[in-house]
Automatic annotation (TrEMBL):
Species: Fraxinus pennsylvanica
Source superkingdom: Eukaryota
Residues forming coiled coils: none
Name under which the protein is recorded: GST N-terminal domain-containing protein
InterPro entries per UniProt: GLR_AS, Glutathione_S-Trfase_N, Thioredoxin-like_sf
Record GO cellular component, one term: chloroplast
Annotated GST N-terminal domain residues: 132-214, 253-318
Amino acid sequence: MEGLGGQVEGGGHEKKRERARMICKWRKKRFGARCSLNQEKEEKISRDENGAQFASKEIDADLGNGFSNSSTSFLTFLCPLLKLFSAGDPSRERNYLLEETTSSLASLARLPWGSRSQFNSLSSQKKVDPPLRLQLFEFEACPFCRRVREAITELDLSVEIYPCPKGSVRHREMVRRLGGREQFPFLFDPNTGISMYESSDIVKYLFQQYGEERSPSFGLLESTLVTGWVPTLLRAGRGMTFWDNSTKEPPPRKLELFSFENNPYARIVREALCELELPYILQSVGEGSGRTKQLLDMCGSEQVPHLVDPNTVQPLVM
């Protein structure tokens, strides 16, 4: 477990080999995954100019080596191009018809994932959240981070989100300290002490630990490499880069966002939170969620996204 606990790499080859052995042993025990030391040593991390790192191993595990090389190369060049052609200053006035249209098309591309909870609110068995909120370090434009957020909607979880845009002044350093490198998504579970990279491993862990014998919906893991990049492309790099005029200090208390992953309007809000690097509590309210009643009691509406800022007086419905 300590190998996944976030010790910083960099103590010579033997320390790296030992960490790889521990990761392989843990994955084999938890997921029955096949893993060799050579695979871990040969893991290639593709860093794009956006600062995100995508493990080529992650693609290999899903679709095989033949597709992985082209996919990794595509992602390597995609984010810099999006940054080049993006709308620039996020504070400028926008064409909101265009914003809503592109975000709606992005949601259409990812249907049905990230839209509904697997825990029916009408069921006699009430969904119970973990004692301590899980902590997810991610950024909105990353397709692999999206995969994890879709799973969070299905599991109806309440999670602390720490956005890690390119140019981050806080959260990327936290990931380096906890895990040893900048790679996203990165999950820390304070209930078990486990931390991990690799979106597919994270999704499997979440369902095994908190899914109550449920499994990810059909195609959630596999579809990321087919349509997971579409929202990133359609949104032209939104939710990717830190806005230079953002405050360098986080607010005293975390904001709270009621939403579900594939809601087109919630996506626009999450993009802004990412560009501002504002940590927030994500309250999943997918179709069938038990939080729907909580939201209705709180504000008299089931409309999402619903943003609560405890640092100000007035909650916001977007």
